[in-house]
Write a structure and sequence with these properties.
Layout lengths: L2 E6 L3 E6 L2 E3 L5 E3 L3 E6 L3 E9 L1 H16 L15 H23 L8 E9 L5 E5 L5 E3 L6 E5 L5 H7 L6 H18 L7 E7 L7 E5 L4 H20 L3
Length: 241
């Protein structure tokens, strides 16, 4: 399994994903689940994925092939689509088609495959938007009322987002929020694991402003995790029945 989260804020977008993939307790591997497509200054699209690796890798490969196709057009290439809504539709159609193909192949073994994605970004002159793409290809959009989207093992990391994330949250605080959300998930679910991939996009920049991988044993992440644990213990002790 996995955990990915995206925040759509007044200042921009923050995305975080883990990299653990497991097919049983004795078959654990690391695979990137964050993919960036950009023409700096003109368009940036970030996609994070959760679910069946065969579905997500094939879908991403098909999206890349469509971009490179010399006959590509606005209906097939996410780098030529006129709006972020059109990008979400292309990604949704691709994901649904790939999922159905894999499902058909697995039907004889009475198995199935599922995957979901968060798609976020902006094109020059357009609005910054973020979508959660379901396995069937339909999607929902982040709004001012709910400025974050999650896929995968989301339940452990949701409480802190519910409490602290608002559209006016700064990008600095947003990065802290998603990292602590991930920390809670790492502590409670073995199917989510490091390294982590973090990306930040400033509004109207139309490019990735910062992107980094956080490895196991990262000193800053460990310090943040320890400080959060202490703060929770101290707050718990102060609460009166």
């Amino acid at each position: 399994m996995t955990y990915c989260v995206g925040l759509l804020l007044n200042e921009g977008i923050v995305l975080l994903s883990d990299t653990r993939t497991n097919a049983g307790l004795d078959n654990i591997a690391t695979y990137r689940k964050m993919f960036i497509f950009e023409e700096p200054g003109e368009r940036v699209i970030a996609i994070v994925t959760a679910g069946s690796l065969s579905v997500t890798q094939t879908a991403i490969a098909e999206l890349r092939e469509a971009i490179e196709d010399p006959e590509a057009g606005p209906d097939s290439s996410i780098m030529m689509a006129p709006t972020m809504l059109s990008v979400a539709e292309i990604v949704g159609d691709t994901l649904a088609r790939v999922r159905q193909t894999v499902d058909d192949k697995l039907a004889a073994m009475r198995q199935g495959a599922s995957a979901s994605m968060i798609v976020a970004g902006q094109r020059k002159g357009g609005e910054m938007r973020m979508f959660l793409i379901y396995p069937e290809g339909n999607f929902i959009e982040a709004t001012d009322d709910t400025p974050f989207l999650q896929i995968g093992e989301h339940k452990y990391g949701k409480p802190i987002l519910d409490r602290v994330v608002r559209p006016e949250t700064s990008l600095a605080d947003a990065q802290k929020a998603v990292l602590l959300s991930m920390d809670s998930t790492l502590r409670s679910n073995l199917s989510v694991g490091m390294p982590l991939d973090l990306a930040v996009i400033h509004r109207d920049a139309c490019r990735i402003d910062s992107q980094r991988r956080i490895e196991a044993g990262d000193a800053d992440f460990a310090r943040m995790s320890a400080a959060w644990s202490k703060a929770l213990r101290d707050s718990f002790a102060k609460v009166k029945l």
